Each structure stands twice: as C-alpha cells, then as structure tokens.
Amino acid sequence: MKFELVDRQGYIPDLVYGEAGKELACFVPDNYKWQQVNYLNGEGDVLIDGHTWRFFFAQEGIGVKLIDGIVTLKEAESFLSAVKVKIWGEDNQQIQMFIAGTTPR
Questions:
Q1: Neighbours of 55 (CB within 10 A)
Q2: CB count, 10 Å around CB of 49?
Q3: 0.85 exceeded by the pTM?
C-alpha cells in the first residue's frame, strides 16, 4: 500500500539525513525502533516491527509505501501521522494524507 503526505502549499522542509547507515532517520518517528535496509539518493527502506516501509519523494510530497508486512488502516494512519509530525512538526495543519495509486487510462 502506498501513501503520500502532501503539504497544501507544496512545502517540504529541508531534511537532515542521519549518519551513514541511519540516513533515513529524518523520516522515521523518534519513538519507533528501526533498522535501515537500504538507502540511495535520499530514499530507501527501513524495517520497523517486522514491516518494511519505503520512503521516497513523490511528485507533490513525501511517499511512504508498505513493502512487506500487514498493518491495519488504523496502524498505518498512526504511523503516517507520526511521520508527518517528524517531517513537518506538530503544529503544521496543512498536510494531507492520501492513499496513492496509479490512475487507470
């Protein structure tokens, strides 16, 4: 399942990537135990509670995709909300969360 976090104004803050092997720390909420699986050019995969999540840049914001594992919609929403706070801060009310997919032609 793929999600996008989009600021209505198109704003993505400058991300401060972590040290080598933990570059994706700028995406992962502080209260989650995680392990980086791979990283390339500001994007990559992390393992959290037996689930693999991919972080990437989407056309209008930040993309988050569940690559491996099963979560409830409520668990996904909670995780995405925590990612939103990590990236944009607690007070930003302009962020929208979308379930993303391809548009049929």
A1: 21
A2: 12
A3: yes
